[in-house]
Design a protein that fits this description.
With 146 residues, the protein is of the alpha+beta class. It has a single domain, classed as Heat Shock Protein 90, CATH 3.30.565.10. Helices cover 38% and strands 32% of the residues. The protein contains 5 helices and 6 strands; from the N terminus they run H-E-H-H-E-E-H-H-E-E-E. Strands 1-2-3-5-4-6 form a 6-stranded mixed β-sheet. Strand 4 and strand 5 form a beta hairpin. Helix 2 packs antiparallel against helix 3.
């Protein structure tokens, strides 16, 4: 069984280069957890989306990646958090096509579709935390917003 140091990685995010590092670290950890093929791409893409939001909207934050086990299920947990401006209207931000910046508006809704569990918590002036889980061999999706 891998040690905790091998099962959790924290990546500070403040630049485009950090997005790439978070994506690579997440892909490597997901591979250790047993993911392969297109599931590795889904995990890496979800990480890219939330890390890019940190860079574009909050400037600084972190992405914490962790191998997880729940009963006989294995997977990866992705937590992206920042102390940025927060999201004023979460339901609007979760609509496809909505963008508060120059993007295509695919970030948060796109990330939500790539994972099995998605939770977004945000307070204006305090920051935003996105928690995602991707389970091996799972096709169930659950989303919560606060």
């Amino acid at each position: 069984m891998p040690s905790e140091a091998e099962t959790e990685v924290s990546v500070p995010v403040g630049s485009d280069a950090d997005i790439i590092i978070a994506r690579q670290q997440g892909r490597a950890l997901a591979e250790k957890a047993g993911f392969s093929g297109s599931d590795l791409t889904l995990v890496a893409t979800a990480i890219s989306e939330v890390a890019r939001n940190i860079v574009e909207h909050a400037r600084r934050g972190e992405v914490v990646l962790r191998m997880i086990h729940q009963g006989d299920k294995r997977g990866i947990s992705i937590v992206a958090r920042d102390e940025g401006p927060g999201i004023d209207d979460i339901s609007l931000a979760m609509q496809d096509g909505y963008s508060s910046g120059k993007g295509l508006g695919l970030g948060l809704p796109g990330a939500r579709r790539l994972v099995d569990e998605f939770e977004l918590e945000s307070s204006v002036g305090v920051g935003t935390t996105v928690r995602m889980k991707k389970w091996l061999n799972s096709h169930r999706s659950v989303a919560k917003y606060r």
